[in-house]
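Recall that a protein's primary structure is simply its ordered list of amino acids. Everything else, from secondary elements to tertiary packing, is in principle encoded there. The following example makes that idea concrete.
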Amino acid sequence: MISEKEITVLGAAKSGIGAAVLAKKEGLNVFVSDYGEIKQEYKQLLNSLNIDWEENGHSQNRILKSVEVVKSPGISNDVKIIKDLITNNIPVISEIEFAGRYSKGKKICVTGSNGKTTTTLMIKHILSKAGLDVVAVGNVGNSFAQVLSEGDHDYYVIELSSFQLDNMYEFKADISVLLNITPDHLDRYDNDFNKYIQSKFRILNNQSEHQVFIYNADDQVIQNEIQKRKIAPKQLPFSIENQLEQGASLNKNQIQINIKTKETIMSIHELAQQGKHNTYNSMASGIASRVLDIRKEIIRESLSDFQNVEHRLEFVAKIHGIDFINDSKATNVNSTWYALESMQKPTIWIVGGVDKGNDYSMLEGLVKQKVVGIVCLGKSNRKIHRSFGSIVDNIHDSNSAQEAVRISYQLAKKGYAVLLSPACASFDLFEDYEERGTKFKRAVRNL
């Protein structure tokens, strides 16, 4: 354990501040460095704890003397300071890796290109109903380190992005959940899908036969990768296409889970969150809960009253017969595919932002079928125009959530829906997808 020399935290957003606070609590010498500006509230917190910090640049000489660096997931491994750290053999780890050293709680870790926030919160909801001491942390919004600095818990449900997984080495999940793998964030992986796949499979790191791996057996990318590997933990797959001996399957629209004995949990029609993707999320959550011996009655009750997360297919308002739906959390094409698939009305689609190597071709059929107008929300919209210009006559550009909502409202008619489902990251116009969704909702309510 590091105790004498200084560690550096790179990036002073939620995860970085959490890591710094935990490091201070554990008696470590810690320095925080951010290439941009640090929020005033975070500066005040660091000052109150006598944690040294800098903003608007990195003091390279000082950082290169660190015994270890905790890196924000938003910082690419290709930036100069990270390359220099690696060249100097200074360990660079994630906040999850760092926090995991100080927790004795069981860790249920969830990753996937889509559905991981919903599944994380579903599992947390079930465990809470069962009366367990559980928190949801990680990419879902709460820093693992920050929560841990206030006291340990018995159970952590941790949402993990590929960026967090990339800098995890000794961390071990008690239960790992892999929902799906579709092309995403390829700009961070040299446009190499295989590198992204390897990143997702890091969720299996250090698991042995004493741990559990839950995965989507209908995902061909996952199945192909499993065939190449020797998987140490117990495998519990889920499928809506085939009957499985272990894990979860559908039988006449009934979710059945078989770990030690086959149990019928509930009908898919009883699920609070409908749609094919939410059936998968519910199956994964149900398996994880049964592994922890949560009674099936509690699982059924929890999955029938679970409320979905903000910014994920969130109904905002009906104005003059037009439905406004906020799906700002859809930061990749596959998430937007699910959103468009769920639309039952002629749709004005708000799309755009920071393109992550998107291939929009998989959306063409749904756009032809569902979309009557497109409003681009981003600084560079040429690719969207190229992809859909021959399919949709009405394509307009906007530079703010307010402008996007105004144009959409003008295009829509009574009985239409306006869907914000960007398929892109938000960083060109917004701080994050949450700010994008919040500003969209505010603009809708100001109509």
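Residues 276-291 form the longest helix (16 residues). The two ends are 56 Å apart (CA to CA).
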